[in-house]
C-alpha cells in the first residue's frame, strides 16, 4: 500500500513548494505580553488572550484549588457521570452573563459549532453563512445535510437575496467579530433581515465575548439583541476569558434538544471540572477588572493612530485584532521573520486560512500590553515595512 504515503509526501511537497508549509512554535513560558522561545524573550502580538487572563494569578489559584477538590479529569461524558458541580455553576453563570435562559458547555469552540449545526439542520433546510466565517461554522454547515450557501462578507443586500431564495427552515450564521479581519458583523441589520424572513440567526462570538458590550458580555449584548433576535449564541472560553472550552446559550427548548441530539456533546469527555471552576473565576475577574477592557481600547486607539501616521495598510477593524494586509504569502512570511529577529512575535496568516492574495500579519493586542510595548511595535514596523 503505497497510496497513502505517496499522497502524504505529495501534500508536504506541495506545501513546501508554495511556501505554505506550517510549523508549531514551542513556547517555554506561560502566555503573556512576553513569551520565551528558544531561550529568548519575545514581545507577543499574536495570542487571543485579549484581556491578559490566561495567566491571571487569581484564575490560576482557582484552577489549582479546584484540582485539589475535583481532581484533574472529568472521567466521563456529561450524560454519563462527567458533569459535576463546577460545570453546572459555570453553565448557570454563563446563562446569566449572556442574558439567556440556559447555556451548554462544550470542550472546544470547534466542537460547539460543528455540533450545533449538525444537530439542528436537516436535508431540505437552508444554511446561509458569511464567506469569512470561522472554519468550524463553515465545516458544520457543509456537513449538516442542509443546502449550504455563502454570502459576500458583511453584505446585507447579498444576504437578503439569498434569504429570498431560501427553501425550508433557514439558519443564518455569522462571526460576531471576524477572526482574521477583526471587523464586526452588522448584527442589528442581520437580526432585522432574519426576523422578516423568519430565519434563525446564530452568532459565533469567539472574539467579542469578554471584550465588547458594557460589561464584556459580547457583540450580541453590545447590539442589544435578545434571545428571540439571536436564538443561538456561541462563544469560546479560550480567548478573552483565558481558559478553555466553549458554550452555546439559548432557550430552554434549544438547550434541552441539543443535550439529546448533539453528537459532539454526547460522545465526548466533559471538560476538566477545574477548568470549569477557573472559568467561573474568570467571569468574576471580567466583571471586577473593567479597566482591562478600557486599557485594551486605549491600546487599539494608540496602535491605529500610530500605524496610520506610518502609512501602514490597516484594515477596517476597531477590535483587538489589527491585521496589516501584505498580499503575497512569501512577503508576509518574510516580514514575520524580520519582526522575529527584532524580538516581536507576529504570525503571518496565509491561505488557506485567508483567500489567496490577502496574506497578512495578524497583530493582536491585549490588556496585558503596556503602551511602551505598543510604541515599540510601531517603531519596529516603521523600520521594517517595505514602503512605510
Ligand atoms: C477560535 C475560534 C473558534 C474555535 O474555538 P476553539 O475553542 O479554539 O475550538 C470558533 N470560532 C471562532 C470565530 C474562533 O475564532
Task: Sum this structure up briefly.
This protein has 388 residues and is an alpha/beta fold. The protein is built from 15 helices and 13 strands.
**Overall shape:** globular
Distance between the termini: 54 Å
In total, the number of domains comes to 2
Strands of the biggest beta sheet: in what spatial order?
3-9-8-7-6-4-5
The helix/strand class is: alpha/beta
Major sheet, described briefly? 7 strands, mixed
Mean pLDDT over the full residue set:
97
**Helix count, DSSP H or I runs of 4 or more residues:** 15
Question: Which helices and strands occur, and which strands form pairs?
Answer:
Layout: H1 3-17, E1 34-37, E2 40-44, H2 57-70, H3 78-82, H4 85-98, E3 102-106, H5 109-120, E4 126-130, H6 135-142, E5 147-151, H7 156-165, E6 170-175, H8 187-196, E7 200-204, H9 219-222, E8 232-236, E9 246-250, H10 252-261, H11 263-266, H12 273-288, H13 291-309, E10 321-327, H14 329-341, E11 344-345, E12 347-349, E13 359-364, H15 371-384
The structure holds pyridoxal-5'-phosphate.
Which features would summarize this protein structure in a list?
globular; PyrdxlP-dep_Trfase_small; Aminotrans_II_pyridoxalP_BS; 15 helices; 7-stranded mixed beta sheet; binds pyridoxal-5'-phosphate; pyridoxal phosphate binding; 2 domains; Aspartate Aminotransferase, domain 1; alpha/beta; 388 residues; 3-stranded mixed beta sheet; EC 2.3.1.47; 8-amino-7-oxononanoate synthase
